[in-house]
Amino acid sequence: MTEPAPVFASGVDNERMNAQLRFLLEVDKLKRVLRQNLLVDGSRRENAAEHSWHLALAARTFAEYAPQGTDIDRVTEMLVLHDIVEIDAGDTYVFDQVNTETQAERERAAADRIFPLLPEDQAERARELWNEFEARDTPEARFARAVDRLAPMLANWHNEGGTWLRFGITRAQVMEKVKLIAEGSEALGAYATALVEDANRRGYFKG
Amino acid sequence: MTEPAPVFASGVDNERMNAQLRFLLEVDKLKRVLRQNLLVDGSRRENAAEHSWHLALAARTFAEYAPQGTDIDRVTEMLVLHDIVEIDAGDTYVFDQVNTETQAERERAAADRIFPLLPEDQAERARELWNEFEARDTPEARFARAVDRLAPMLANWHNEGGTWLRFGITRAQVMEKVKLIAEGSEALGAYATALVEDANRRGYFKG
Question: Is residue A1 less than 8 Å (CB to CB) from chain B?
Fold first, then answer.
């Protein structure tokens, strides 16, 4: 745990601000959590912090493809927060069946440790947003998840198969994830389907 | 320029979506733009994409220190977009006087190239938000800039002087930047002032 500088600012609730700083210093570690997929240019693996930034921008850029009435500010907030649990739990590759089984428990434990670094009211809100993202029972959470699933597909296409070929993933396995995209956004689902068909023609899947 | 996959999704304005995809693929390059400051743990230099993510989270966490009525969703959107011009212009170190002189022009040229990759309505909004951030003539832009200035100060403190010592920066030079923080947020300005005093006692500045 990185402790904030021991400074006293006048006119400020220092205890509260220290809790906020402790959280912000802790989450800096997300920049060191590596995902399996590469950057679009293939130069290196993506980290979870820059991935979260890219998703926030993608959600706003694709906002018109969310169901009418979807609160894009809430989607953005959710995406900025959604991967913080990976600081403790690590990134779980979406087709890794063994680790996916323990993922929910590992991530819950991480949420129990990291969000309460914040002042109580802010910790509650962060936890609520993260729970919502995980449960996918609102249009905001489903759209956030759709964007989260689409981004690595774009990277894989631009890396001539990327992690699909590297880990021997089939078209059918990827189509399972396309379903999640379509549940969040009809248009992004249609795009993802077309992308998978094109990737299949190019031999980017196993078999 | 990275071209989107040549796919045709049914029920979608493919030309518009392709423009959005071209923008999102292009801005992936921000993950490769390195800033001078290190991560909080000192392990490597920070890139501009993960920096933007951290700022979006910091702005929301510190929202209560913005002047009353500040639209934090707009601040977040601004921070997610603000560094994209660095894809062409590179990151300009805040105390680099030579490059700071040409910075505005280089960044304007980058904005002229990158934002118009988006469909026209979205390009206009992105440019407007970026102009606002640069002009600092709204509470949102001043608060966004305050958070942007504070973050590398935290990293420097945790790296025992970091870029301050490495580039021979004085306490007076840093206090110029603290002024910008105070203009965006009284409380963050008070904290930054106290942080600089503490850093000064520890010998983290030149002279």
Answer: no
Using CB atoms, pick whichever of A56, A61, A199 lies closest to residue B122. A61
- Cβ–Cβ below 8 Å for A53 and B50: yes
Every domain of chain B and the residues it spans: 14-201
Q: What is the pTM (predicted TM-score) of this model?
A: 0.97
Does the distance separating the beta carbons of A29 and B122 come in below 8 Å? no
Question: Chain B closest CA to A53's CA: distance in Å?
Answer: 5
DSSP tally for chain A: helices H, then strands E: 10, 2
Q: Write the burial class of residue B69 (CB in 10 Å: 0-12 exposed, 13-18 middle, 19+ buried).
A: exposed
DSSP B205: S
Among the partner residues A40, A187, A198, nearest to B7 by beta-carbon distance: A198
Distance from CA of B175 to the nearest CA of A (A): 15
pLDDT at B139 over 90: yes
The string of pLDDT tens digits covering residues A51-76 is 999 999 999 999 999 999 999 999 99
Q: Which amino acid is at B117?
A: L
Domain covering A14-201, topology: Hypothetical protein af1432 (1.10.3210)
Give the amino acid at B108: R
- pLDDT over 90 (residue B98): no
Long-range contacts of A203-207 (CB under 8 A, 24+ apart): A203/A161, A204/A156, A204/A157, A204/A160, A204/A161, A204/A162, A204/A164, A204/A165, A205/A161, A205/A164, A205/A165, A205/A169, A205/A170, A205/A171, A205/A174, A206/A164, A206/A165, A206/A168, A206/A169, A206/A170, A207/A170, A207/A171
Counting residues of chain A whose pLDDT is more than 90, the rounded percentage is 93
CA distance B106 to chain A (A): 23
pLDDT tens for B35-62 read: 999 999 999 999 999 999 999 999 999 9
Region A148-174 average pLDDT? 97
